[in-house]
Design brief:
This protein is an all-alpha fold. The protein has two domains: 203 residues, no CATH class; 38 residues, no CATH class. Helix content is 61%, strand content 0%. It contains 14 helices and no strands. Helix 1 crosses helix 5, helix 2 packs across helix 3 and helix 7 runs parallel beside helix 13. The protein is globular, with a radius of gyration of 22 Å. The two termini are 23 Å apart.
Amino acid sequence: MVGGPGGRAPTYLAAAGRVLAAAGFGTLIALALAGILDGQWPIPGGDVANFLAAGERLRAGGAVYVGGWDLPGTVYYSPPIAVLFAAASFLPGWLVWILLVAVDVAGLRYLAGSWTRVGWLALCPVTVFQLVSGNPNFAIVAAILAADRGHVWALALSALAKVGPAVALPIRRWRSFGIVMLVALIVTVPWLDLWPSWIRFLLAAPRGDAWPTIVPFAYRVPVVIVLLAVRRPWARMLAGGLAIPGFYVVTAWAVTILAWRLWLDRRRPGHRGRDRSGYLREPVVPVPGSRTAWDDDHSGSAATLIEIQLHV
């Protein structure tokens, strides 16, 4: 929108938004490099080192589910993911870290909906801390949004990692979800004993203050139940995020971004609700120089509606 005092404001705001996004990317890169070079974030370190250690234990025939949340080498992911860790342990640790960071960046981009928004989110230090960890929390929460658009396989993988996202499953897609789970079960046939070990390990996990979650799981369960009772897609998606047992600061930040994205989508002028299958329709993006239904509603004149599917 250009021309006239009223037309300049949106242009200036868009330019300011891009500058802010550039500042966010600069902040992210600076913080990441400073932390890596200072040894605060070793490569691979933290979660990625734990993943690879668990994979190496499986390859060696040892116990996978041992330790505690604050002990090196501990993982709480399901057996199919442990098998994936075992395969990844053949690769150099730094390469596994890069791949997981790339997956998480893609997840953040999907959640945010644009690279400009990613830049805004990068201004928050939690974003860089999450990305350099190598634990794909952004991607796991992004899978909840993707499932509402028909990509249930991503939700199944996230549920295998952190259980809670399964709550966000659109009921009409249970067959697709079940197929992925069946394939995951088949993958673990040579290590079926991992399943009871995993379940026992989860049940023995620390509770309350012993687990460094910002909101204990027991306190979140009633909220999850209420959200599911609302029987709305947005509520189901938020319930899936809140149902993740290890609700750390980074997890809370990812779920907050999901809530922000859902709110933004509802406010878009081109938002079109859901299709006949119940999936969230992609927003309409106006082409520069064209008119949209938003223009018609506010000008009262006839116009041609040009729709472009925005695949984020």
